[in-house]
Write a structure and sequence with these properties.
This protein has 7 helices and 6 strands, in the order βαββαβββααααα. It is of the alpha+beta class and 224 residues long. It has a 4-stranded antiparallel β-sheet with strand order 2-3-1-6, with helices on one face. A two-stranded antiparallel sheet has the order 4-5. This is RRM domain-containing protein.
Length: 224
């Protein structure tokens, strides 16, 4: 049984390297990847859409596996490398999907440009429709005519004045109640008390005089 029979299907001798520095040289790549085995070929990307990438092909598949396991995520020239196994079918599918997405994007851009050219006021009318202000004169807007901040300040002033008046009214009522209660508890003058006492003494003297002048009845005799 060969060694390659135990490997995953995607493992092969060609590695695809991404996130390389734009200043990296072929000698730098040979020095780095050559530590894991004999290298057959290294190809660097030079186009605008392939800069920072490279293909590294080993003589032995096990050397390629060791390099992929060790160098994926390795910090090289202040860049973290992305090392993957080269899969032509998968890469071709990804490129086709990318090309299709770019084509759809271009179509959408062209449609939008054509629509804008046909109706340049479309964007303005759309904004007015969203804000609910289409067809309305801005000078007659309630917000423009009377600022909300002024209404708020006036309302607060009226409320404060009303509270002050209520407090004054409550204070006057409390004062009147205290005065009324105090008048009820005020003692009578001394002259009034003296006159009442004098009348009581006179009444008592009259009762004693009447008792002294009344005849005394003893037994069943006739009155004198």
């Amino acid at each position: 049984m060969s060694r390659s029979s135990k490997l995953a299907p995607e493992v092969n001798r060609a590695l695809f390297v991404k996130n390389l520095s734009y200043n990296v040289s072929a000698d730098d790549l040979y020095d780095l990847f050559g530590r894991f085995g004999s290298i057959r070929q290294i190809r660097q990307g030079i186009a605008n859409n392939t800069k920072g990438t490279a293909f590294v092909v080993y003589e032995d598949v096990m050397d390629a596996k060791a390099a992929c396991d060790k160098l994926n995520g390795f910090n090289f020239q202040n860049r973290y490398l992305v090392v993957l196994y080269h899969q032509p079918e998968k890469m071709a599918k990804s490129e086709a999907n990318l090309a299709e997405r770019q084509e759809n994007l271009e179509k959408l851009k062209q449609e939008h440009a054509q629509k804008t050219a046909d109706d340049p006021d479309d964007r303005t009318s759309f904004k007015r429709k969203d804000s609910g202000m289409s067809g309305m004169d801005p000078s007659k807007s309630p917000e423009t005519a009377t600022p909300k901040t002024r209404d708020f300040a006036t309302t607060n002033t009226n409320t404060t004045n009303r509270n002050v008046r209520n407090e004054k009214h409550d204070t006057n009522n409390t004062k009147a109640a205290v005065d009324k209660s105090s008048s009820k508890m005020t003692p009578a003058p001394a002259s009034v008390l003296g006159e009442s006492k004098h009348k009581e003494n006179l009444n008592m003297l009259r009762r004693m005089k009447n008792m002294a002048l009344a005849p005394l009845h003893i037994g069943g005799g006739a009155k004198a």
